[in-house]
Amino acid sequence: MSASTTIEKRPFGSLGSRTRGDKVIWTAVVLLAVVSLLVVYSSTGLLAYKMYKGNTEVYLFKQFAFIMVGVMIIYFAHMVNYTIYSKVAKILFLLSIPLLFYTLFFGVKLNEGSRWIRLPIINMTFQTSDLAKLALFMYLSRLLSKKQDVIKDFRTGFLPVITPVAIICVLIAPANLSTALLIGATSLMLLFIGRVSAKHLLLTIAIAAIPLVLLVAAAAIRHKTNGGETVKPKTEGASRLSVRVDTWISRVETFVYGTKEATSDKNYQTNQAKIAIAKGGILGLGPGNSQQRNFLPHPYSDFIYAIIIEEYGLVGGAFIVIIYLIFLLRSIRIFRRCPFAFGAFLALGLSFTLVIQALANMAVNVNLFPVTGVTLPLVSMGGSSFLFTCLAIGIILSVARNADQSEGNDKKEEAIA
After folding, report:
1. Is the pLDDT of residue 114 over 80?
2. Would you say residue 298 lies in a domain?
3. Is the model's pTM score more than 0.85?
């Protein structure tokens, strides 16, 4: 009897007895969930007071509900034999393509970017790039596991695995360039580990770098043309794509050159984040004592890491970084222990995308990267991104659970022999 069959036929017991997988990852999830509750409650107090007439606990209860739903998703996803995800990977990938097309042209427009579609009945916005990202890494892991014998060949090995990456990134980039870049970088890392030829990867990087170089060059030219003054992106009478390109150029220009006015709208977010970090110092102002939450845009999502440092200091900020790195190391351990290529690539790809997203968010908060709309996984206030993150973690734990079961069966066979 195989390990996967053993897992499926084990009878259900209590929640605790049925919980398997890497216990360190489970612990990391709990710690990040606790941090999320504390910081979301602190950073949404004023917003809740204004929106709900003095009721400052509304977003706390909403976040708690998201965490409970997220834990259930993790639990049930980790109970599924991960080989099932291989069977549905292609279906989800093919489904994500028309959803991205629909979002690009007919999606909900927020901040000049069309990233969401509104689900009927429940009236909740849903970011299709989250589904596409998950589907891509599931499908990419499946392809890598099946093409190991021909992976060095350009036509039969490389093209089939790079094409899905290119499709998803091209469809996401017009509305969310930062997410497309993160997905592309994570995919290339996974392909490198999957034994794809280095020269093929370098060729891909060279091609992908062309539009990025043009973007930086456009920012430099515009900055020089305007005499060192940054210009607000034009939105009236322009198409969505032209507005987004103008926004990209503006963000690169602001990041590279800054602005002469300290109170400029372009520098406002990064300046307020810097103030929050400076106020935090080594040990922070203490839980709930953030002052910049009243001035910093999106302190509960994009800039939640700055609030963490303000309230818990550099010690708290370092603690968050360590949790994500431990999560990555444990996922690498799962990759090395998993007896099957699909599970190994799946666990590593999903962990890479979560940790790289976390590092990108923190880099933006400390002004090491241009401003993006990337959230901090499992910490930023709940939404569709939060739930898809929980699903990805559940899949990683499913791989870990199967690997543990396989090792247990091997040890039993050795003992009998």
Report:
1. no
2. yes
3. yes
